[in-house]
Write a structure and sequence with these properties.
This protein has about 475 residues and is of the alpha/beta class. It is built from 16 helices and 9 strands. α2 (about 40-60) runs antiparallel to α13 and α4 (about 85-100) packs antiparallel against α13 (about 345-365). The model is unreliable at about 1-30 and about 270-310 (pLDDT under 50).
């Protein structure tokens, strides 16, 4: 987690005497609660917050609710949604842990959330803010478009399927690039998939206006559907079209459907199996084994890249097989480069801390702490994702990020062959970073795939795949 904080006023987890915390009591004193907490320096506070978060999570996982509650009380004295990086992270992780605790009492949980209004329409503006404040989605779109342009060279009929059709900027840029092809623009058809009709109507309007302005033959086909309910075989794919597929941060949600199926088909656990047991570790061990070196799978779980972990992915396998059946010339997939799909709570917390610390640090380096836009992204996007990863289980847990090596195995098992991304795609991405003046971001290439990094930490992967015929 060395990327957590770099500047004055921010917290760091890379240096400070760890023995300092072993001497601190986690019990409240008499009188004013925890007065010594306010005297901590920024780095000490950041270290101690992680110490408290990990301790609270361990207590929660082992069923020690009273100690978990005590830990949350201390965290709340230090955490702040408008403080430095570590204070903000702690605020949203503690909220997620509290949500998980409340779920132990279904009646209370329902009562607390009964008036909560959740709207897809609210998510779109926040995703747009993320698009504007951070370059990750811009880079993913640029790399995706370049791969599509190269795959569709010389094609006169091009059909693109967008598995999350909510951002017109990607396809406006592609339409403009197709317009200046030496062989002239193709007839372009885009099938957009989204669960909200109004979003698709706005997409159709924006893209049709741009295509008309540039005099490009264009058609937009809206499909109102959630991804897990999509009937791929019914998509309007015509003979003679060159087909491309774009998926940006979407496929991982299908893994939730697989867990629901697996749970229904599995025997119910005994009472002793309902509580996840984890061995408490010192904060020093946490930093050495998890925060610094990354995720280590538990000895009782299959390797993240093992075929054994893919056999239960019925929904995902069926979905990918259906996409393969469409014979696409190119399928470009962007996913989070993190492993937040573990069955054990501590595995997910360690991974999420490492991943979201880098995202919070990105905003810390470029956006004012008082920015309302930043607070919206952190609360309504990052905070909700953290809550889903930590507080939810079963089909309710949609944020099941996995690393590229596991996605690659799934695609290959479904019949796709790897299509190396080109050097032109790398150049386009680097030019974008230079034009916006983004510092601290990197693009790395590995085995024909690109990783979008903050400093040296990969946060998103972009890979391209093609239809491979079985002989």
């Amino acid at each position: 987690m060395e990327a957590m904080v770099q500047e004055e006023g921010s917290s760091s987890v890379t240096s400070s005497p760890l023995q300092f915390f072993s001497l601190m009591s986690l019990s409240p004193g008499i009188g004013s609660p925890y007065p010594w907490l306010r005297e901590l320096k920024s780095e000490e506070r950041g270290l101690y917050l992680i110490h408290l978060l990990v301790g609270c999570a361990n207590n929660l996982a082992s069923g020690s609710m009273e100690n978990a509650d005590l830990g949350l009380s201390q965290i709340c004295h230090l955490a702040s949604p408008d403080g430095d990086t570590m204070q903000r992270i702690a605020a949203y992780f503690s909220e997620a842990l509290a949500n998980r605790m409340v779920k132990a009492w279904p009646g209370i949980n329902k009562a607390i959330n009964c008036t909560k209004i959740s709207s897809i329409a609210e998510e779109i503006p926040v995703q747009r803010l993320f698009f504007e404040l951070c370059p990750f989605l811009k880079l993913a779109y640029v790399i995706t478009n370049q791969a599509i342009l190269e795959a569709m060279e010389g094609e006169k009929m091009v059909h693109l399927i967008d598995l999350n059709s909510s951002e017109p900027a990607q396809w406006i840029n592609l339409i403009q690039a197709l317009c200046v092809r030496p062989e002239g623009p193709p007839h372009l058809r885009i099938t957009g998939i989204h669960e909200q009709k109004e979003v698709l109507e706005q997409m159709a309007l924006r893209l049709s206006e741009e295509a008309e302005r540039l005099d490009i033959p264009f058609q937009f086909n809206p499909i109102v559907s959630k991804l897990e309910n999509l009937d791929v075989e019914s998509l309007p794919v015509k003979t003679g079209e060159a087909l491309g597929i774009s998926s940006v941060l979407q496929l991982h949600s299908l893994l939730a459907s697989d867990e629901d199926i697996n749970r229904r088909n599995s025997p119910k656990p005994t009472s002793s199996q309902r509580v996840i047991q984890t061995n408490p570790r010192t904060f020093g061990e946490f930093l050495e084994k998890d925060a610094v070196t990354g995720y280590s799978p538990s000895i009782d779980s299959a390797s993240p890249s093992s075929p054994l972990t893919l056999t239960g992915s019925h929904k995902m396998a069926s979905f990918l097989n259906s996409l393969w059946g469409l014979s696409p010339k190119v399928m470009v997939v962007t996913e989070q480069e993190s492993n937040n799909n573990g069955s054990r709570l501590m595995e997910r917390i360690n991974e999420a801390l490492n991943f979201y610390a880098a995202l919070f640090d990105c905003l810390e380096s470029t956006v004012s702490r008082s920015s309302i836009e930043r607070q919206k992204v952190e609360k309504m996007l990052f905070g909700e994702e953290i809550k889903n990863i930590i507080a939810c289980e079963g089909g309710e847990r949609k944020k099941r990020h996995e690393r590229l090596d596991k996605w690659a195995m799934r695609f290959e098992l479904a019949g796709f062959g790897r299509l190396p991304l080109s050097y032109n795609g790398m150049l386009q991405a680097r030019r974008l970073l230079q034009s916006y003046g983004y510092d601290g971001y990197r693009i790395k290439e590995e085995n024909g795939c690109f990783f979008i990094c903050w400093q040296e930490q990969p946060l998103y992967s972009v890979s391209a795949w093609r239809f491979r015929r079985f002989d």
